[in-house]
Amino acid sequence: MHQHPAPVWNAIAEMQPLQTDWAEQMFPMPQEALDVAMDREQARLTEEMGSDRLAMAYLAVMPTLWEAPAVQAFKASGHYLSDGVTVMETVQQAVIAASRDYSLTTREQAQLEKKLREMPAA
User: Buried (b) or exposed (e) across 1-33, using 16+ Cβ within 10 A?
Assistant: First the structure.
């Protein structure tokens, strides 16, 4: 979610229905609150997953995987998303992108794939 400032995620939340409770909580937050929430979320995931890098990779791809319809509709309506934000249509696509950006090991890829198949915790 650090790919864009809070106003982008806020606009997605306002324009499109979201599929997860996680996004419903995170997307509408103002920047300062979102930064704090993301730091807390990264710490929680680092503890859960046993790796800060894996937690960062998860947070980078999970929102655009689980909220792909909302993000795609936002882009289709003419709004700009940087090249760093790719809408992930499949778990495998998300794992490949995360692996490329975070140099994940085969074991970490498997762990990420398993985590991405679960609905994000709110």
Answer: beebebebbbbbbeebebebebbeebbbbeeee
